[in-house]
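Let us practice reading a record.
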Amino acid sequence: MKVLRADALGLCFGVRDALDVAFSREDADAITVYGELVHNETVIARLQARGFQLAPEEGRESAVQTTKVLVTAHGISNRERERLVAAGKELIDTTCPLVQKVHNAALRLQEAGYYPVVIGKHGHVEVRGVTGDLHEFAVVASVEEAEALVLDHPRIGVVSQTTFAENLAREIVAAIERANPRSQVRFQNTVCDPTRQRRAAVERLLQDVDAMVVVGGRNSNNTRQLVQSCQAGGVRVVQVQGPDDLDPAFFDGCEVVGLTAGTSTLDEVVADVECALGRIEVCGADRSSRPAVTLR
């Protein structure tokens, strides 16, 4: 079975920088990671093994017992940052610059008199950070929600979660415009380049493979988006966290399998999955008919 790697996959620079900061610390036992550093179970396990204290993403402020707090790549609001500093905490900030760009764009729109709308997953830690400094706002995650968003405001400013699907974000903006025909709608496209690149790389692969393997954490939004791209392209897909999740039976009938990974997936985990795929023996490969789309 041949394995084709996507030409853009795995760790983005923001996650890589956050990991470098965390794993270079020699005082891990004196630091609380403020939520999940990245949405990847392998990374979380390694942080625990190093001695970091880990605060849950819900109720994390009350869970901090150390004087040092590591702000994750997903960022936090300025208000939350100020509360931590006022409580005597020393902040180690690994916020991704592209996430900070969303914060800044939303605040600028608010200051310019726009009603802020954030396109993103409800309750996602990045979205909570962006909205935490806004006086009023709406969060929408689908075209249906956007169509129901009727605002009595002459100006609406829209930003997006960095890992949201760009094509869907544009559909949502169009739906907001339809629902608010008398409002000026301004869209600041803050979907990040690594998300775009990985999605585009997957779409280029789909016509050449019989199935796709997407490596990433269960709670990773960008990994989920990659899975959905494969499903939309009519190619069966499995999401795994590592090589142990691979089921050889899934690949029966496959000659060529594509491989990609979310932006919080370690390079070595991708390599391990690729190696495991190379050892799988399949039977009955026939590219004349492709199996139905499945998600394991």
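A brief commentary: The two ends are 20 Å apart (CA to CA).
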